[in-house]
Amino acid sequence: MSKIQLALLFLCLVLSPAHAQGPASDKQSFSDRLVLHTDSVEPRRFVAVHGRQAVIMGYPESGLEIWGYPFQILSNYQVDFRLAGSVTESEGRLLLRRIDYRPDSVTRIYIGPDYIVKEKLFVPLNEAAAVLSYEVEGPRPVDITIHFLPVLNLMWPAAVGGQNKHWSAEASGYVISEPLHGMTAIVGSPEIVAHDDTANSTLRADGTLAFSLRPQAVAGAPARATVYVALNAAGTKKPAATQQELASHLQEMETEAATHYADLESQSLEIHTPDEDVNRALAWSEVALDQAWVCNPQLGCGIVAGYGPSRDARRPQYAWFFAGDGMVATNALISAGEYSRAREELAFIAKYQEPKTGMIWHELSQSAGYVDWSKYPYMYVHVDLSFDYLNTVAHYVGVSGDTTFATDHWSSIAAAYRYCQSLIRNTDHLPHIPADKEGGDEQHRPGDDLSLSASWAEAASSFADLAKFTDHTQLADEAIKENQLARQAIAAHYWDTEKNFWINSHTQSGEPILNRRRGPMQLITQKVFSAQQDDALLYELASSDFQADWGMRGVAASSEDFDPYSYATGSISALGTTEAAVTFWQEHRPDIAFSVWSSILPWNMLDSLGHIHEVLAGTYYHEQMESVPEQTWSSAGLLDAASRGLLGLDIQGATNSIHLSPHLPAEWNRISVKNIRLPHSTLALTISQSMNDIDLEISNEGAATKVLFEPQIPMGAHLRGAEFQGHAIAATTEVFAEDEHANVPLNVPAGTSHCRLHLEGGLSLILNRSALRIGDASTEMKLTSLHLQDMTLSMEADIRPNGNNTFRIKTPWKITSNQGASVRSLPDDQYEIMFAPVSTRLNPVGYAHTHLELTFARK
């Protein structure tokens, strides 16, 4: 996305008059153009500012914590203000009124009686340091008091002792040190006018320290003061030199960070739609994915699982490494075309593979370089990750065409596959979880589960692909047989004929666990079960039993296990929701898919603006108690689903070709996509749609490529013809129960090409999106199925009495009769349809099932 385009996306979010001007072209202003604002700030408004080696994060109520990985430098950072001539201080958290979020910094605005303080939080991109700048405007001077708890201790579970702190006049700040590793940290400012002493005192038993800043005004500008926080490794600079270096290079480091985010769009997939909520969420998802990249001096660089405040003994949520989270993020990086970063993350995961067994690790604390982390019970515990590793590597190699990675890491790939095989029983050809290990279901600790078995079937296929890429033909043939045996076993082992739903798992003794969990939806696209079974699953998963206005529950509301406030048995996961949306798109239920996917969009503004929480409660719209405010895989899932589902992008790296099956909502007339990266080509495209035409313009920088263009078209539409570069070409249609597509194979040369499809008739649905507020219950209708036959549209849905039970239909046809609904004609060939009230019994979340029929005639 160009800087001008992305600037325009966010103008609706920008409030100050200065931001209402035209977009600037310099890279330093790019971050300002992504600015998000909120006036809802206290106490539930998380902020985090990220660098590769450090982070500032926290809530106003509990204060900020600052890390220079893997050390927590300080916690409980709070500000107070005192007007000149006054005695009483005002608590900063009570004066906090606005927060501005940018990719490279966060600014918190405090409003006093006759003064304004702007606190800018900044972390250099490549330094273990943080800079907190204060700008004061008002008729009288204002002193700022900083309170904090010095820590300088390792991330959980490692720890060091013997820390001490002292005031350094040379550095104008506190120096914290620990003797074992010779680490020091500086917390100081040139504008300090008073400070606590560090004498051992019973009057300050909590260990907190404080100092006062007196911001200085120069040449009529606002008064300013700056706090510098930095970590020094053993034998490096003196604290005073560290602070001076940060001060002298601050502008340079700010420019570096701003330029980094300005360049991000030139590396990643860029999607622009008519919906500003979508544009904002996707742009910030790429930012969040980038901000998860952390470089630890002992362990190397990799993706952390997210960011949230420390809850117990210096254990931040989740600013350490998880292989599973990293692989979810890797899939999003692949979708975004960031192949180099995806390759680095896979290499990082392979680096810590268990040498003896080939098992892939689960979690890696950032302090693991200081302890024997393998002796803790957290590293090699999840058996499912070895299966996921094979699938992610195969996905990366298949899309990027980087077969060299598979060759270079073949020993790692083969070892992981052997570990997976070690869990397979010959009696049923399925994986079983050892008693001392875990699968994906940590709560029930089953002996086997459907998700793991599904991953095994996929992993066997993935290994076969990787074996072919690396000329291990015999191993590929054997893996294909393993895949076939697993598929047959899953179909026989995991279906409950009485409930007509899958069995999620079995106990160690083999008893089925029937808890109506969402389950591994990739099994549906893999066609392991019969078509009738898949239809039954999709029907149930689309219902209000699973769907709320803000996403999909992990467990059905009708389940005996359902607890809407629990983490694993009733909450709504952003990742699980976006994965479900991809399945609905791939299974040709685009209206349900878009409704499910777009339900996550409000999460982008819920807590840490631009970032997405981990899970929300299952019955009312708010964060679940354990949820992390910036969860990497949540942002990754939203972006990945937009690529694979909404756009229907499927790149075949081996042939430098692409399938493009976009599912554009009927209310959108246009979408543009840039930086679609193939091994030998980079594509940009624009798709425009109207009632009568679909236009595709492709710009190809690179070698000629084949594009199979399969856009969704209105149900019942007649494809009158197709043109490419002004010449008629062959085109066909494919009709599914709830979806129809054109099918147009294109040979796309370098340069710009144009394809046009001519349509006649048909209808499209436009479903409502809920305007969610904290504490709301779900009220929107939940579409479960639709079918068009002989000009009659049949629909089934769950509706809530007094809920929003309307939707629109866009069609050039006229409605001649209806059953189960009221109809109102609207301009622009649209109708508003409202389901008739129902008197049937309501389900546990207050919905009832109903249906309607609409008959159409051509005008």
Can you put this structure into words, describing what you see?
This protein has 859 residues and is α+β, with helices and mostly antiparallel strands. 25% of the residues lie in helices and 32% in strands. It has a nine-stranded antiparallel beta sheet. Strands 2, 3, 4, 5, 6, 11, 15 and 16 form an eight-stranded antiparallel beta sheet that branches. The chain has a seven-stranded antiparallel beta sheet with strand order 18-36-37-38-45-41-42. The longest helix has 21 residues, at 473-493. The radius of gyration is 28 Å and the shape is globular. The protein starts with a helix and ends with a strand.
Per-chain topology:
Blueprint: H1 3-9, H2 30-33, E1 36-38, E2 47-50, E3 54-59, E4 63-68, E5 71-83, E6 90-91, H3 92-95, E7 96-101, E8 105-111, E9 116-122, E10 129-137, E11 142-154, E12 164-168, E13 173-178, E14 183-188, E15 192-195, E16 209-213, E17 223-232, H4 239-248, H5 250-264, E18 270-272, H6 276-291, E19 293-296, E20 300-303, E21 306-307, E22 321-322, H7 323-335, H8 339-351, E23 363-364, H9 384-400, H10 403-408, H11 410-422, E24 448-449, H12 450-469, H13 473-493, E25 495-496, E26 501-502, E27 505-506, E28 512-513, H14 522-525, H15 531-541, E29 547-548, E30 551-552, E31 572-573, H16 574-586, H17 590-598, E32 615-616, E33 630-631, H18 632-646, E34 649-652, E35 657-660, E36 670-677, E37 681-689, E38 693-702, E39 705-709, E40 712-713, E41 718-724, E42 727-729, E43 732-735, E44 740-748, E45 751-760, E46 764-767, E47 782-789, E48 792-799, E49 806-810, E50 814-819, E51 821-826, E52 830-835, E53 848-857
Parallel strand pairs: 35-39
Antiparallel strand pairs: 1-7, 2-3, 3-4, 4-5, 5-6, 5-11, 7-8, 8-9, 9-10, 10-17, 11-16, 12-13, 13-14, 14-17, 15-16, 18-36, 19-20, 21-33, 22-23, 24-27, 25-26, 27-28, 29-30, 31-32, 34-35, 36-37, 37-38, 38-45, 39-44, 40-44, 41-42, 41-45, 43-44, 46-49, 47-48, 48-53, 49-52, 50-53, 51-52
